[in-house]
Amino acid sequence: MAQSVDIKFIEKAEAELGVSLPNWYRVSMQSLNGGSVSFGGEAWELYPILDLTNKKSIRKTGDNLVLNQKSAQDWPGFPSNAIAIGENGTGDHIVLLILDGGIADTRVYHWLHETGKCIDVTNA
């Protein structure tokens, strides 16, 4: 999706989620706002931040971080302290875990929907 997003929309998403996202994630979303990543032999789609700049931006980012977080919370076993930032199309998510004080951990985890486990994949 390689489309930049204004920091104000990232801050709006943080406010809606009640979390401070890690700086590396904010910078990445600000410049690319979504896209794909690969690790562990799998492709993952990152959820974009809703961009309210114009109708085209809204259309491109409608399936966004906040909406997907709400959906992920409905999965049995999804951690209450996790923010879903992407998915692989099989039900698994890549997540950030929320630490005390509403700050997201800088590490990235693979949440397995079949077991409910989170595996640190930061360096994968």
From TrEMBL:
Residues in coiled coil: none
UniProt cross-references to SUPFAM superfamilies, sorted A to Z: SMI1/KNR4-like
Domain named Knr4/Smi1-like: residues: 4-114
Record-linked Pfam families: SMI1_KNR4
Protein name, UniProt field: SMI1/KNR4 family protein
